[in-house]
Amino acid sequence: MMKSLLCTAAMVAMIGSASAADLDKPIPAATDDAPMTGTQTVVLAGGCFWGQQAVFEHVKGVISVVAGYSGGARNTATYDQVTTETTGHAESVQVTFDPAQVSFGTLLRIFFSVAHDPTQLNFQGPDRGTSYRSEIFFANAAQEKTARTYIAALDAAHIFSGPIVTRVEPLKGFYAAEGYHQDYLIHNPTQPYIVFNDLPKLEALKKVWPQYYRTVPVQLARR
């Protein structure tokens, strides 16, 4: 369970990404935000699932967030296998939400602006490989339409200095990660990887989208 601790400005410049000014700022809302009723679930991938889970646990209207794996088979959905980059999985989070409180389009707005960099292909920050890719695993046709339309609109408006590389594919399976990965930031707030890579995402959420930020996270597991 080792994550690279490299997270320097020199490294970011070397590997290339959207400019710093592209990130952690408000972006336009999704105009084609299809109305949904009842509890909804979507699976999002955008780098290490520790940070993704932490961000969405602090969003109002989110009911639960589970860290796990999507895009591959059930029998290879373990951390040791996924990190070999041979299983097809992406580290993902399963976000269950109440659309009466937070819309699907709003979740995507947060996903693209502060949760990760959608212009990085098969890596996020210091983490490399297809398991760290940017992807939306949609649960229904309404989610697919909203996601594809929103990505096209953001690209057309040149919101980022590079094209969005986020994949949009149907959800075929989600497999919860091992227990020690769940609520990782909550239980390990001083771990160096968390300090360098994930706590800044929470600060960005609070600063950029205060209207959606909840102080007390929706915690999945208690120890």
Descriptive overview:
This protein is of the alpha+beta class and 223 residues long. The protein has one domain: Peptide Methionine Sulfoxide Reductase, Chain A (2-Layer Sandwich), CATH 3.30.1060. A 6-stranded mixed sheet has the order 7-6-1-3-2-8, covered by helices on one side. A two-stranded antiparallel sheet has the order 4-5. Strand 6, helix 5 and strand 7 form a beta-alpha-beta unit. About 6% of the residues have low confidence.
Q: Which segments are poorly predicted (pLDDT under 50) over 5 or more consecutive residues?
A: 4-17
How many structural domains can be distinguished in the coordinates?
1
Side by side, the strands of the main sheet go 7-6-1-3-2-8
The chain-level structural class is alpha+beta
Return the CATH class.
Alpha Beta
The proportion of strand residues reads 15-25%
Major sheet description? 6 strands, mixed
Q: Any idea what the shape is? A: globular
Q: Architecture, according to CATH?
A: 2-Layer Sandwich
Distance between the ends = 19 Å
Tell me the radius of gyration.
Answer: 16 Å
Percent of residues in helices comes to: 25-40%
Question: Order of helices and strands, N to C?
Answer: HEHEHEHEEEHEEHH
By DSSP, the count of extended strands is: 8
If you consult CATH, what is the topology? Peptide Methionine Sulfoxide Reductase, Chain A
The averaged pLDDT comes out at 91
Number of helices: 7
Please give the oligomerization state of what you see.
Answer: single chain
CATH homologous superfamily (4th level) name:
Peptide methionine sulphoxide reductase MsrA
